[in-house]
Structure prediction request, 92 residues.
Amino acid sequence: MTAEQRDSRWNFRVKAQSDALVREAATLMGTSKTAFVEESAVSRARSLIAEYQPVVLSHEEFSRFADALDAAPVAVPELVDLFAQPSQIPQQ
Prediction:
């Protein structure tokens, strides 16, 4: 057992194809299937929860935010150069 105590158990069945895919990914990451599945599920859960969390700004913060949106755009020379280059993606 690792330094962090595990006190909950997940028990579910998956398709053989899904299991093989997750095993391969876990191997590529150099981790166990359990650690890979837990890390992936927790990461997805955090992302999903964050999408539903309201953004609360004070009046001052909202004013600064609105001012930033209203400000004139500023060109970033590196991006201007990058977008001036031809695409590296083959066109069909």
Observations:
- The chain has one domain: 16-84.
- Residues 16-84 form one domain.
- The chain has a mean pLDDT of 93.
- The first helix runs from residue 16 to 29.
